[in-house]
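Ligand: LTVM2SF3. Inputs:
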Amino acid sequence: MKRVALVGLGTMGPGIAARMARGGLEVIATDTSGAAIERARAMLPVVRTVMDRLGIEPPPEGEAEIRFATGLREAVEGADLVLENVPEHAEIKASVYREIDGLIGPETIVATDTSGIPITKLQAGISNPARFVGMHWSNPPHIIPMIEVIAGEATAPETVGAIRNLIRSLGLLPVVVKKDVPGFVENRVLYALLREVVDLVERGVIDPEDADTCVSWGIGYKIAVIGPMALLDMAGLDIYRSVSSFLNADLCNRSDIAPLVEAKTGAGRLGLKTGGGIYDYDADAIADLQADRADKLIAIRRILEEGA
Ligand SMILES: NC(=O)C1=CN([C@@H]2O[C@H](COP(=O)(O)OP(=O)(O)OC[C@H]3O[C@@H](n4cnc5c(N)ncnc54)[C@H](O)[C@@H]3O)[C@@H](O)[C@H]2O)C=CC1
Ligand SMILES: Cc1ncc(C(=O)O)c(C(=O)O)c1O
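Predicted complex:
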Protein backbone atom coordinates (compact mmCIF):
# COMPACT_ATOMS: atom_id res chain seq x y z
CA MET A 1 0.00 0.00 0.00
CA LYS A 2 1.52 3.30 -1.10
CA ARG A 3 -1.03 6.04 -1.50
CA VAL A 4 -3.76 7.10 0.92
CA ALA A 5 -6.58 9.55 0.29
CA LEU A 6 -7.81 11.14 3.50
CA VAL A 7 -11.29 12.64 3.34
CA GLY A 8 -12.09 15.06 6.19
CA LEU A 9 -9.57 17.25 8.01
CA GLY A 10 -11.31 18.18 11.27
CA THR A 11 -10.20 17.03 14.71
CA MET A 12 -8.80 13.67 13.55
CA GLY A 13 -7.67 14.15 9.94
CA PRO A 14 -4.47 16.22 10.32
CA GLY A 15 -2.87 13.91 12.92
CA ILE A 16 -3.77 10.81 10.90
CA ALA A 17 -2.34 12.36 7.72
CA ALA A 18 0.90 13.23 9.47
CA ARG A 19 1.23 9.80 11.12
CA MET A 20 0.68 7.95 7.86
CA ALA A 21 3.13 10.17 5.96
CA ARG A 22 5.71 9.62 8.71
CA GLY A 23 5.27 5.89 8.02
CA GLY A 24 6.16 6.44 4.36
CA LEU A 25 2.64 6.55 2.87
CA GLU A 26 1.95 9.22 0.29
CA VAL A 27 -1.08 11.16 1.56
CA ILE A 28 -3.53 13.28 -0.40
CA ALA A 29 -5.96 14.97 1.95
CA THR A 30 -9.14 16.84 1.22
CA ASP A 31 -12.02 18.61 2.95
CA THR A 32 -15.06 20.51 1.71
CA SER A 33 -13.96 23.41 3.92
CA GLY A 34 -11.03 25.49 2.73
CA ALA A 35 -10.55 26.71 6.31
CA ALA A 36 -10.16 23.11 7.51
CA ILE A 37 -7.49 22.51 4.86
CA GLU A 38 -5.59 25.62 5.95
CA ARG A 39 -5.89 24.69 9.64
CA ALA A 40 -4.59 21.19 8.86
CA ARG A 41 -1.66 22.59 6.88
CA ALA A 42 -0.81 24.92 9.78
CA MET A 43 -0.97 22.07 12.33
CA LEU A 44 1.50 19.82 10.55
CA PRO A 45 4.75 21.30 11.99
CA VAL A 46 3.45 20.94 15.57
CA VAL A 47 2.29 17.38 14.97
CA ARG A 48 5.62 16.46 13.35
CA THR A 49 7.50 17.84 16.37
CA VAL A 50 5.41 15.67 18.70
CA MET A 51 6.16 12.60 16.55
CA ASP A 52 9.89 13.47 16.59
CA ARG A 53 9.76 13.60 20.38
CA LEU A 54 8.00 10.24 20.44
CA GLY A 55 10.91 8.82 18.44
CA ILE A 56 8.65 7.82 15.54
CA GLU A 57 11.17 7.26 12.77
CA PRO A 58 10.35 7.33 9.07
CA PRO A 59 11.26 4.26 6.99
CA PRO A 60 14.63 4.27 5.12
CA GLU A 61 12.93 5.85 2.06
CA GLY A 62 11.98 8.78 4.31
CA GLU A 63 8.79 10.52 5.37
CA ALA A 64 6.32 10.83 2.50
CA GLU A 65 4.69 13.95 1.22
CA ILE A 66 1.25 15.24 2.25
CA ARG A 67 -0.62 17.01 -0.51
CA PHE A 68 -3.92 18.82 -0.20
CA ALA A 69 -6.63 18.53 -2.83
CA THR A 70 -9.71 20.70 -3.15
CA GLY A 71 -11.93 17.98 -4.62
CA LEU A 72 -12.68 14.32 -4.01
CA ARG A 73 -11.86 13.26 -7.57
CA GLU A 74 -8.30 14.57 -7.34
CA ALA A 75 -7.85 13.15 -3.82
CA VAL A 76 -8.93 9.57 -4.51
CA GLU A 77 -7.40 9.13 -7.94
CA GLY A 78 -4.85 6.30 -7.81
CA ALA A 79 -5.36 5.77 -4.06
CA ASP A 80 -4.77 2.28 -2.60
CA LEU A 81 -6.72 3.31 0.49
CA VAL A 82 -9.40 5.95 1.01
CA LEU A 83 -9.82 6.79 4.71
CA GLU A 84 -13.06 8.61 5.42
CA ASN A 85 -12.99 11.01 8.39
CA VAL A 86 -16.11 13.14 7.90
CA PRO A 87 -18.59 13.88 10.75
CA GLU A 88 -20.27 11.06 12.64
CA HIS A 89 -23.53 11.10 10.65
CA ALA A 90 -24.40 8.08 8.51
CA GLU A 91 -25.98 10.28 5.80
CA ILE A 92 -22.88 12.48 5.43
CA LYS A 93 -20.68 9.39 5.24
CA ALA A 94 -23.05 7.77 2.71
CA SER A 95 -22.88 10.85 0.46
CA VAL A 96 -19.07 10.61 0.43
CA TYR A 97 -19.22 6.88 -0.46
CA ARG A 98 -21.69 7.59 -3.27
CA GLU A 99 -19.37 10.25 -4.64
CA ILE A 100 -16.19 8.17 -4.54
CA ASP A 101 -17.83 4.95 -5.74
CA GLY A 102 -17.38 5.75 -9.43
CA LEU A 103 -13.92 7.25 -8.92
CA ILE A 104 -11.99 4.32 -7.42
CA GLY A 105 -10.82 0.98 -8.79
CA PRO A 106 -11.96 -2.46 -7.56
CA GLU A 107 -8.75 -2.95 -5.56
CA THR A 108 -9.03 0.29 -3.57
CA ILE A 109 -9.90 -0.25 0.09
CA VAL A 110 -12.33 2.22 1.64
CA ALA A 111 -11.96 2.55 5.42
CA THR A 112 -13.99 4.61 7.86
CA ASP A 113 -12.82 6.15 11.13
CA THR A 114 -16.37 6.06 12.49
CA SER A 115 -16.50 6.14 16.29
CA GLY A 116 -19.15 3.45 16.32
CA ILE A 117 -21.67 3.34 13.47
CA PRO A 118 -21.85 -0.37 12.52
CA ILE A 119 -19.69 -1.13 9.49
CA THR A 120 -22.44 -3.37 8.07
CA LYS A 121 -24.74 -0.34 7.91
CA LEU A 122 -22.15 1.94 6.30
CA GLN A 123 -20.97 -0.59 3.72
CA ALA A 124 -24.52 -1.01 2.39
CA GLY A 125 -23.98 2.26 0.48
CA ILE A 126 -20.92 1.21 -1.47
CA SER A 127 -20.72 -1.01 -4.56
CA ASN A 128 -17.71 -3.06 -3.38
CA PRO A 129 -18.52 -3.80 0.29
CA ALA A 130 -15.90 -6.58 0.45
CA ARG A 131 -13.24 -3.84 0.29
CA PHE A 132 -14.90 -1.70 3.02
CA VAL A 133 -13.68 -1.82 6.64
CA GLY A 134 -13.64 0.09 9.93
CA MET A 135 -10.28 1.63 10.93
CA HIS A 136 -10.99 3.43 14.18
CA TRP A 137 -8.18 5.66 15.43
CA SER A 138 -8.13 7.22 18.87
CA ASN A 139 -7.63 10.94 19.56
CA PRO A 140 -4.94 12.38 19.34
CA PRO A 141 -4.18 9.98 16.47
CA HIS A 142 -0.50 10.85 16.07
CA ILE A 143 0.10 9.88 19.72
CA ILE A 144 -2.29 7.01 20.58
CA PRO A 145 -0.92 3.79 19.05
CA MET A 146 -3.99 1.52 19.19
CA ILE A 147 -6.32 1.29 16.18
CA GLU A 148 -9.44 -0.89 16.06
CA VAL A 149 -10.10 -2.84 12.84
CA ILE A 150 -13.72 -3.87 12.30
CA ALA A 151 -15.24 -6.00 9.57
CA GLY A 152 -18.85 -5.62 8.53
CA GLU A 153 -20.87 -8.64 7.39
CA ALA A 154 -19.71 -8.15 3.79
CA THR A 155 -16.06 -7.27 4.46
CA ALA A 156 -13.59 -9.78 3.00
CA PRO A 157 -11.08 -11.26 5.47
CA GLU A 158 -8.31 -10.12 3.06
CA THR A 159 -9.41 -6.50 3.59
CA VAL A 160 -9.14 -6.88 7.37
CA GLY A 161 -5.73 -8.53 6.90
CA ALA A 162 -4.50 -5.72 4.63
CA ILE A 163 -5.48 -3.01 7.13
CA ARG A 164 -4.07 -4.95 10.08
CA ASN A 165 -0.76 -5.35 8.21
CA LEU A 166 -0.74 -1.69 7.24
CA ILE A 167 -1.20 -0.65 10.89
CA ARG A 168 1.61 -2.99 11.96
CA SER A 169 3.88 -1.66 9.22
CA LEU A 170 3.38 1.83 10.66
CA GLY A 171 4.59 0.53 14.03
CA LEU A 172 1.09 0.85 15.52
CA LEU A 173 -1.10 -1.62 17.40
CA PRO A 174 -4.06 -3.11 15.51
CA VAL A 175 -6.85 -4.66 17.56
CA VAL A 176 -9.28 -6.71 15.47
CA VAL A 177 -12.82 -6.46 16.85
CA LYS A 178 -14.53 -9.80 16.21
CA LYS A 179 -18.15 -8.62 16.04
CA ASP A 180 -19.55 -5.45 14.47
CA VAL A 181 -21.24 -4.13 17.62
CA PRO A 182 -22.12 -0.37 17.82
CA GLY A 183 -19.22 1.59 19.34
CA PHE A 184 -16.92 -1.41 18.78
CA VAL A 185 -14.88 -1.99 21.98
CA GLU A 186 -13.02 1.20 22.80
CA ASN A 187 -16.06 3.45 22.74
CA ARG A 188 -18.36 0.95 24.46
CA VAL A 189 -15.95 1.04 27.38
CA LEU A 190 -15.36 4.80 27.19
CA TYR A 191 -19.07 5.60 26.92
CA ALA A 192 -19.93 3.34 29.87
CA LEU A 193 -17.45 5.38 31.90
CA LEU A 194 -18.62 8.75 30.51
CA ARG A 195 -22.29 7.92 31.13
CA GLU A 196 -21.58 7.14 34.77
CA VAL A 197 -19.38 10.21 35.36
CA VAL A 198 -21.84 12.62 33.71
CA ASP A 199 -24.64 11.09 35.81
CA LEU A 200 -22.66 11.45 39.05
CA VAL A 201 -21.89 15.12 38.26
CA GLU A 202 -25.49 15.76 37.27
CA ARG A 203 -26.79 14.22 40.52
CA GLY A 204 -24.39 16.39 42.56
CA VAL A 205 -22.41 13.42 43.84
CA ILE A 206 -19.16 15.03 42.72
CA ASP A 207 -17.85 18.20 41.03
CA PRO A 208 -16.32 17.90 37.53
CA GLU A 209 -12.76 18.71 38.74
CA ASP A 210 -12.93 16.08 41.49
CA ALA A 211 -14.43 13.53 39.08
CA ASP A 212 -11.43 14.08 36.79
CA THR A 213 -8.97 13.69 39.69
CA CYS A 214 -10.75 10.56 40.90
CA VAL A 215 -10.79 8.85 37.49
CA SER A 216 -7.37 10.00 36.24
CA TRP A 217 -5.43 9.26 39.42
CA GLY A 218 -7.51 6.38 40.74
CA ILE A 219 -8.36 4.39 37.62
CA GLY A 220 -6.72 5.90 34.55
CA TYR A 221 -3.16 5.87 35.83
CA LYS A 222 -3.45 2.22 36.89
CA ILE A 223 -5.34 1.04 33.83
CA ALA A 224 -2.59 2.31 31.50
CA VAL A 225 -0.39 -0.39 33.02
CA ILE A 226 -2.88 -3.07 34.08
CA GLY A 227 -5.71 -3.59 31.58
CA PRO A 228 -9.25 -4.19 32.92
CA MET A 229 -9.21 -7.96 32.51
CA ALA A 230 -5.85 -8.18 34.30
CA LEU A 231 -7.22 -5.77 36.94
CA LEU A 232 -9.94 -8.30 37.78
CA ASP A 233 -7.21 -10.77 38.67
CA MET A 234 -5.31 -8.17 40.68
CA ALA A 235 -8.39 -7.23 42.73
CA GLY A 236 -9.67 -10.81 42.97
CA LEU A 237 -12.74 -12.11 41.16
CA ASP A 238 -14.38 -12.80 44.54
CA ILE A 239 -14.24 -9.05 45.32
CA TYR A 240 -15.62 -8.20 41.91
CA ARG A 241 -18.41 -10.74 42.42
CA SER A 242 -19.40 -9.30 45.80
CA VAL A 243 -19.31 -5.64 44.75
CA SER A 244 -20.99 -6.21 41.39
CA SER A 245 -23.79 -8.15 43.14
CA PHE A 246 -25.16 -4.86 44.59
CA LEU A 247 -23.44 -2.16 42.52
CA ASN A 248 -24.35 -3.22 38.96
CA ALA A 249 -28.04 -2.66 39.66
CA ASP A 250 -27.31 0.87 40.90
CA LEU A 251 -25.14 2.03 37.99
CA CYS A 252 -26.50 4.55 35.53
CA ASN A 253 -28.38 2.79 32.75
CA ARG A 254 -30.02 5.75 31.01
CA SER A 255 -30.47 5.16 27.29
CA ASP A 256 -31.13 8.77 26.28
CA ILE A 257 -28.70 11.69 26.18
CA ALA A 258 -28.04 13.20 29.60
CA PRO A 259 -29.72 16.63 30.22
CA LEU A 260 -26.33 18.14 31.11
CA VAL A 261 -25.01 17.23 27.65
CA GLU A 262 -28.18 18.45 25.90
CA ALA A 263 -27.97 21.77 27.76
CA LYS A 264 -24.30 22.34 26.95
CA THR A 265 -24.55 21.39 23.27
CA GLY A 266 -27.79 23.41 22.94
CA ALA A 267 -25.91 26.46 24.25
CA GLY A 268 -23.07 25.88 21.77
CA ARG A 269 -20.65 24.84 24.51
CA LEU A 270 -18.92 22.00 22.67
CA GLY A 271 -15.58 22.03 24.50
CA LEU A 272 -12.13 23.14 23.36
CA LYS A 273 -13.31 23.88 19.84
CA THR A 274 -15.78 26.56 21.04
CA GLY A 275 -13.70 27.87 23.96
CA GLY A 276 -15.88 26.21 26.58
CA GLY A 277 -17.80 23.05 27.42
CA ILE A 278 -17.71 21.44 30.84
CA TYR A 279 -14.91 23.88 31.66
CA ASP A 280 -14.06 27.35 30.29
CA TYR A 281 -10.93 27.83 28.15
CA ASP A 282 -8.98 31.01 27.60
CA ALA A 283 -8.36 31.11 23.82
CA ASP A 284 -4.70 32.13 24.35
CA ALA A 285 -4.10 29.23 26.73
CA ILE A 286 -5.50 26.40 24.57
CA ALA A 287 -2.23 25.85 22.65
CA ASP A 288 -0.31 25.65 25.97
CA LEU A 289 -2.86 23.22 27.40
CA GLN A 290 -2.56 20.99 24.34
CA ALA A 291 1.25 21.15 24.46
CA ASP A 292 1.23 20.24 28.16
CA ARG A 293 -1.07 17.26 27.48
CA ALA A 294 1.12 16.14 24.56
CA ASP A 295 4.24 16.36 26.79
CA LYS A 296 2.63 14.16 29.42
CA LEU A 297 1.29 11.63 26.92
CA ILE A 298 4.75 11.42 25.32
CA ALA A 299 6.44 10.87 28.70
CA ILE A 300 3.92 8.19 29.74
CA ARG A 301 4.14 6.43 26.39
CA ARG A 302 7.95 6.31 26.57
CA ILE A 303 7.80 4.69 29.98
CA LEU A 304 5.12 2.20 28.95
CA GLU A 305 7.16 1.21 25.88
CA GLU A 306 10.63 1.21 27.38
CA GLY A 307 10.03 0.59 31.08
CA ALA A 308 10.92 2.93 33.94
N1 LIG B 1 -13.11 13.58 17.59
C1 LIG B 1 -12.65 12.42 18.08
O1 LIG B 1 -12.13 12.35 19.21
C2 LIG B 1 -12.75 11.18 17.26
C3 LIG B 1 -13.56 11.12 16.13
N2 LIG B 1 -13.60 9.96 15.40
C4 LIG B 1 -14.47 9.85 14.24
O2 LIG B 1 -13.76 10.36 13.12
C5 LIG B 1 -14.65 11.00 12.22
C6 LIG B 1 -14.25 12.46 12.09
O3 LIG B 1 -14.35 13.05 13.35
P1 LIG B 1 -13.77 14.51 13.67
O4 LIG B 1 -12.45 14.68 13.02
O5 LIG B 1 -13.90 14.68 15.14
O6 LIG B 1 -14.87 15.40 12.93
P2 LIG B 1 -14.86 16.95 12.64
O7 LIG B 1 -16.27 17.38 12.61
O8 LIG B 1 -13.88 17.65 13.51
O9 LIG B 1 -14.26 17.02 11.14
C7 LIG B 1 -14.92 16.50 10.03
C8 LIG B 1 -14.40 17.22 8.79
O10 LIG B 1 -15.03 16.64 7.65
C9 LIG B 1 -15.28 17.68 6.74
N3 LIG B 1 -16.31 17.23 5.81
C10 LIG B 1 -17.66 17.20 5.96
N4 LIG B 1 -18.24 16.69 4.87
C11 LIG B 1 -17.25 16.40 3.99
C12 LIG B 1 -17.22 15.86 2.67
N5 LIG B 1 -18.34 15.50 2.05
N6 LIG B 1 -16.03 15.70 2.07
C13 LIG B 1 -14.88 16.08 2.69
N7 LIG B 1 -14.85 16.60 3.94
C14 LIG B 1 -16.02 16.76 4.58
C15 LIG B 1 -15.68 18.87 7.59
O11 LIG B 1 -15.50 20.09 6.89
C16 LIG B 1 -14.72 18.71 8.77
O12 LIG B 1 -13.52 19.45 8.58
C17 LIG B 1 -16.06 10.80 12.81
O13 LIG B 1 -16.63 9.66 12.27
C18 LIG B 1 -15.76 10.62 14.30
O14 LIG B 1 -16.77 9.93 14.98
C19 LIG B 1 -12.82 8.87 15.69
C20 LIG B 1 -11.98 8.91 16.76
C21 LIG B 1 -11.92 10.04 17.68
C1 LIG C 1 -15.69 11.42 23.60
C2 LIG C 1 -15.02 10.58 22.54
N1 LIG C 1 -15.79 9.98 21.63
C3 LIG C 1 -15.24 9.18 20.69
C4 LIG C 1 -13.88 8.95 20.65
C5 LIG C 1 -13.40 7.97 19.65
O1 LIG C 1 -12.40 7.27 19.89
O2 LIG C 1 -14.07 7.75 18.65
C6 LIG C 1 -13.04 9.61 21.55
C7 LIG C 1 -11.53 9.50 21.57
O3 LIG C 1 -10.97 9.92 22.57
O4 LIG C 1 -10.87 9.07 20.62
C8 LIG C 1 -13.65 10.43 22.53
O5 LIG C 1 -12.90 11.02 23.49
